[in-house]
Every structure is written in C-alpha cells, then in structure tokens.
Amino acid sequence: MRGATYHVMNRGNRKVRIFEDERDRRRFLRFLIETKETYGVDLLAGCPMDNHFHGIVTTPHGNLSDFMEQWEGRFAKYSNWRHQRVGHLFQGPFRAVVIEHDIQLLIALCYVFFNPVSAGLCSRAEDYKWSTYAATVGLAACPSYLSIDWLLALFPDATLEQAQVRFHALMTEGDPVVGYLQQHDAAVDPGALRRVIRSYTNEQLQLGMLPQIYRSALRSTLTELFPDGMTIPGRANSIYDAHVKHGYKLAEIARELRINPSTVSKIYRRTLGSRRTQ
Length: 278
Prior knowledge:
This protein is α+β, with helices and mostly antiparallel strands and 278 residues long. It has 13 helices and four strands.
C-alpha cells in the first residue's frame, strides 16, 4: 500500500545464523541503504540479530515486496558466495505486519529495540551497536539513511531533540505504552489502561492481525498471572494461559512457582489434553 508502514522480519533457514561476523552485518546494512534508495523506502527502525532481523519501514510508493525481495536476495547471494554455501539463506518469504496507528507503532518499536535485551545480548537497548535505537534517541549520530520524523508524530508538541529525549525516557519505564498514554491523560488509571490495551491486542491476535511476538510487549507479569492463594485448578489454567496466551516458557513459569519444570510440563500437557476434549 502506498504510504503504509510495516514491521518486517525474517529469519535464517532452519533458524541458522544469518550473520557470521561484522563483515556480514556491514554488507547487510549496505544492501539495505542501497535498496531503500532505489525503491524510495523510508527506514524508521532496524535491528539485525544473529539468526533473524527486524525492521520498520514506510513505503511511499507501495512497493514493499519488490524492496524486500531485492534486499534479501542481494544479501543471500552475497552470503552464499562468501561462505561457499548453496540453497536458501532465509526460511521463507519475509513477514510483514501493517502498522495502523501510533500505539501499534510504539508496540512494534518496543519489540524491535528490546529484542537484543530479551535475547541477553546486552543489558540496555542503547548498548546493542547494530540497532538503530542509540541514533534514534540521540545517543549516537543519526545516519542519513534513518528516518526519525515519526518521533514528532508521537510527541507533536516537542522539537525533534526534545522528542528524542522524551522517547528515551519513555523506553526506560517499565511499561512504555502505558506511560505514553498516561502522558496524554494523567488521570487515566494505569491498571485500566493495561486491561484495555491487552484486550485490544489479544483480540487482534485471535484475528491473526498481529504476530504472536507482540504479545510480550503488553503481557501480564508472572506475578500477576499467579497471585497468592490460587486453587490447584486455577493454577493449572494459569499455567496454560501463561504459556499459550502470553508466551512464557514453561521453565520461566516453573521458576516463578518454585516447582520442578517437569511438574509444570505435566500440568500443562494435562490441561491441554482436557481442553482439546471439551
């Protein structure tokens, strides 16, 4: 679509590494810059990991597929040549999610920028050198290929420099989306906001309009999912919900409950089986 904004992503075939070293990452970035210039695409955010990458782009000319095919194709050809490989580098066609409003953009940005932190590659988003986050918030020089005008849309009453500072401060909060909404209406109850946002997000997930990865941006904490005094059946249902709806690993749930991971696995499988027969 002309003028549409997308969260694009792809990963290595069989989840293998896409980037073997810094030379690969630099070439990936070079191809991105050249291809975006050719197709007139704007890059709002980017974060290459080890076996996958994320980007947020706007396509004024409605040519996302052509842009992605050229970008990925050039890098795959280069990677196979350099590392003496044949076959597919990526697991399949790229995935793209249309971003329809500011809150969805903020959710996507949170996911992209916090991805290295979640993966344990750094403790702060600005410490990951291959992400555009540091440049976005003014902690590094902003390269010419990066568009950060969207900051003015999120903070329309600020200058670009002020918007960078405010976005950085927002991203250091425990829940950036709720914090952003509260800035617009200080009287709004944060608990109510979380329930409304999660309700909307869960509805979109059920409809298949948002990728499953977005659930982590707004999911309840394990402490919230497992309050004190839960009954045994209630705990079993919460284990199922925490794993299926919120994306927590069974090992994470086991640590929260302080019980053996095998016990959590058995409870989950039992609950899954009973729900399938209902």
